[in-house]
Design brief:
heterodimer; A: mainly alpha; about 0% strand; globular; B: about 350 residues; alpha/beta
Amino acid sequence: MKFNSWYLSSFLISLIVLIPIITVFLSFFENTSNYYQILKDTFLLEYILSSGILLIAVLILTFILGVGAAYLVSFYKFPGSNFFKWALILSFAVPPYIFAYSLTAFFENYGTAFTILKNLFGDGNYNKNIPKFDGMIGAILSISFSLYAYVYILARASFLYQSQNLIDLGKNLGFSKFKSFYKVILPAARPAIVAGLSLVAMETLAEFGAVDFFSINTLTTGIYNSWIYFDDLAFANRISFFLLLFIFTLFILENLSRRKAKYHFNSRAGFKQKEKIKLLGNKSFLAFIFCFFIFFISFLFPLSQMLYWTIKFPENLFDLNIINLFINTIYLVTLSSLILLIFSLISNYGNRIANNKILNFLSTFSISGYAIPGVILAIAFITFIAWFDDNIIKSFGFGSIKKIFIGSILGLVLVYFIRFYSLAFNGIKSGYEKMNISVDESAYLLGYSKRKTFLNIHIPFLRNSLLFIIILISLEIIRELPITLILRPFNFETFATTAYISASEDLLEAAAVPSLFLILIASLFIIVTSKYILRENE
Amino acid sequence: MNNFFEVQNVDFAVGGKAKVRNVSFSIKNEGDIVCLLGPSGIGKTTILRTIAGLEKLNKGKIELKGKILSSEKINVEPEHRNISLAFQENSLFPHYSVKKNISLGSERNEGKKNQKIKYDDLIDLLDISQVLDKFPHQISAGEAQRVSLARSLVTQPDLLLLDEPLSNVDQSFKEEIQEKLKKILNDSKITTIIVTHDSYEAFYLGSKCGIILDQKLKQYDDPYNVYHLPNSIEVVNFLNRGTLIPAEVTSPKSLENKDLGTITGNFVKPFPIGSKVKLLIQPEDLHHDDSSNLKLDVVDRKFRGTNFIYTLKTPNNSLIPVFVHSHHIHQHEINEKFGVKRPIHIDHIVCF
């Protein structure tokens, strides 16, 4: 095998992405302070228990919302079904922590619900009759309504590519509609649904903003707290290790399911376009209500709440330097997307031409960064830089490099890179999978060098995939909270961090303005790429 | 004088696993066409890929125009070989139109004074003018194959490699394309190696044919010799154009078979008198004669348009193919008796 520069670059990129994972793994075997023992006897169990309850409840709710909505819009025609098809993914624009702020703002004592009732019916003691969605229930609702779209998108894509032949087969066997659903349609979409639920599970375990807002002690908040409040990096890394084990199990499960799901999406042989059934009367009304309820709660509700507060407290709009926040956000998005794209392209191309088993394994392993909570990545990164600084840099007599990487744009972008590398890598990989290797070989035989093949054949071919990846990464970075919070330079704020800081200081009204802008920018990105997200371009 | 192209003792391998061993053959003159025949999966494509430089070589040597392209120590990268390979499957650039795909092939020749092939002639000959503005996914497999062929041809390579070039072309159109392809290759004097499993295609296009069987190049000869003078039982079985029946050599110019009696002719390879041999009977060797007293049972009849191939069963259960022109009025049904003309004379007697 020839160790060319493409191979070497690909190898190094994978290795850099793997650093935090290796750091977390190694730090498990280090000693920690006595506080570990105390926590182990008291809070650790609570962390695990809370994470478990949260996970199970969110999975059940996202399954019902995601599969239910996907089934209705894929198989039936009813008023608004074409609108809901893409509108239901707008919930991606509302991160769980903003949903949590809205939920609290609406239902709290003297909150928006109270104001509405007062305006409608005059003064009264409405507070005791208004339900309170805080604590665990608040966290479950916030995360579920924000993340159900993962299940919706994948289930819908699977339903979309289910051939009419499959449904006809059910009818031919004499199945009722309900029996067809659970005997034919659901099993055929199972890998896609499991893949969606696995993504939800990983995001739920990694969720920081909403659970922190509702003061739920999960493993993720435990990691953050042990670092911020107890200054115990080693303990933070130990909790991370437990969380990682759990997440890796889900990651493997997700990967296995996705492999099968891909089969479903690509299988076009004998494909027969489905004909949607037109719903009438009550059934049509119920289908509309179900989809509208999800759309309203997941998107319109938080958007209206934030808009209402922005209008009600306009001074917050002028207190904030919106242009500055916008520039900061766009700066991070542009820089990170560019770096992610360039390195993922190099890595993918290196993999493609080297076709080496070690490199393939390393790449598969390195893309697990997406499954690791941002909190863990940020802390593992700090741990690694501290170790590298103390043991390597100082031994050569150089000055400290901590300031270069911690609390700097460079460090922030580097951890974004690790976190979102899999998005870019997998996006390009799936683009490449549509291009037979004989296309490369044809180019070589036409006299193209490897570099010229990459630039003149591959890049134009991957153009659409690259555009889609840029928007996905942008969406993620705009919403990202814990990494930005931990690693941002002093006085450098984004819409997400400004919203978080205001909310953590109990200034929910002030959190509304950055939240509103965040939702609007993210919505714009989603609308632009809805066709790709819904896989209607394939 | 040196050969134009030469393969010397090469093991053709994929991923370190040899598929065809110790292969040697050469192409004497520029512009010659060679066809490699063999069953699917035998390693024909591997041979082309290795010659093109897409697979590495661990044993032997490949030379083109006196220059070593591949050996244990030397490996010229594919882009520097000026060898073109048209893949069997669609390898067109999916995001470029057909026209652009072909023009990318001609980039290599920009500035070349001696343009052997004119773009317009090629488009016309391969009948692809109607698909020029389409994208690869919008054209049929047969059209894609012809476009791929055009792209390879416009590069005007020193050596053109074609992997089953007409496998996806409609049967009705195949002969026409074969004729056009042969004309283009002959006119442009582009040296070509064609891999195919269709022996008729190989016999028509190639000035030499190589038969690959059991990891070896079994025979490399003129098409006529490959057909009429196969050098092994394996080649006979692969070509599937005859049957082997037991016989005994009775003189330098005759043999005796229990069912057919005396057969005369010229031995390709001499055998001592009294030798027990297997005699190759090809469909053209026996002739129909209703008045003959040698009657055999018809067990099958294949109508091929211009002719019938009857399969006859001898009393000793040998199955013998016999060619009869289809305009012959007297057709024989299965289980009927079929007269074979005597005495039997075969121009070249092939025995093993």
